[in-house]
Amino acid sequence: MKNILKSTILTTALCSVLFGFSQTELPIQSIEDVDPIAELQNQDLQNLLQTEIYKNLKWKSLINNKKMSIAIVDLTDDCNIKYAGLNDNHMMYAASLPKIAILLAAMDAIDKGELKDTKEVRKDMRLMISKSNNQASTRMIDRVGYDKIEAVLRAPKNKLYDEEVGGGLWVGKRYAAGGKRHPDPMKGLSHAATTKQVCSFYYQLVMGNLVSTERSKEMLDIMKDPALHHKFVNTLDRIAPKATIYRKSGSWKNYHADSALVWGPKRKYIIVALIDNNLGEQITRDLVVPIEKVLKKSRSLAKV
């Protein structure tokens, strides 16, 4: 009963603060006690996602062999946010995507006075996210340290890495040839993620729940309008040119990762994919249209 009451209060609060926003303005609010994203799981959306993805036999095989993970959050209805995922608790190597964890740790350190907020730091954070610059990322890791990154990811408020739910976001190596490693305790990965926890990162940003409302806004500003236009963004440029994209991707050898918060007049959602396949870059491009089809069907079901 307590959890139901808490969820009702949160939903009411969300509805009251979000209804006033335009279709293109990002609704970021300071909401206490944001429910874990797992509690937003929607069975209808889950069924639609699996059915649509399994139509492609290559994708179905990748999913069944744990070579592909997908997660989505439908933000269309402010009072009924929905989550679904496939292999979403399966942690995979994620290349540069976990640089969002470095961004979060740096913002937390700035907020606590542990890291001086300078023009150089701000420039490196933007280069790290927008252009995925490895040198800037390494400088940021050296500034905050692995212990700080891990502490922020494990923090009870964030819970972006948790062994009990398959791990999550992890940064345990500089984006450079040398340096000490700090691998994750579950699989020994240096740069890792689960699609569920990446979705949680974006969802908590929208809720203003990462560090503070102001710091969440600053992180979104850094992630806005990425300089690299491949993977998800390549397709979104074509089908949703008026949408604002907040994004971080990554690739290394056969590993391809992408994540985005898509906010526009006709679409509001989070999409994340991790793929271990040499065609992963093309697969991420091809995923956007069927995912939008799933979200459209879900909205239609909600109106019945």
Q: Overall mean pLDDT score?
A: 90
The global form is globular
Total individual domains: 1
Secondary-structure element order, as H and E?
Answer: HHHEEEHHHHEEEEHHHEEEH
Q: In terms of structural class, how would the helical and strand content be classed?
A: alpha+beta
The name of the CATH superfamily reads DD-peptidase/beta-lactamase superfamily
Give the second-level CATH assignment, the architecture: 3-Layer(aba) Sandwich
Please provide the count of β strands: 10
Radius of gyration (Å) = 18 Å
CATH domain fold name: Beta-lactamase
The CATH class name reads Alpha Beta
Regions with little confidence, pLDDT below 50 for 5+ residues: 1-14, 16-24
Strands of the largest sheet, in order across it?
2-1-10-9-8
Q: Could you tell me the strand content as a percent range?
A: 15-25%
Instruction: Tell me about the largest β-sheet.
Output: 5 strands, antiparallel
Cα(first) to Cα(last) distance is 28 Å
Percent helix, as a range, is: 40-55%
User: Number of helical runs?
Assistant: 11
Features:
304 residues, Beta-lactamase, three-stranded antiparallel β-sheet, five-stranded antiparallel β-sheet, alpha+beta, 45% helix
Description:
This protein is α+β, with helices and mostly antiparallel strands and 304 residues long. Helix 2 packs across helix 11 (280-303), helix 4 crosses helix 6 and helix 4 (99-111) crosses helix 7 (146-154). Helix content is 45%, strand content 17%. The chain has one domain: 3-Layer(aba) Sandwich (Beta-lactamase), CATH 3.40.710.10. It contains eleven helices and ten strands. The strands form three sheets. The chain has a five-stranded antiparallel beta sheet with strand order 2-1-10-9-8, sandwiched between helices. Strand 8 and strand 9 form a beta hairpin.
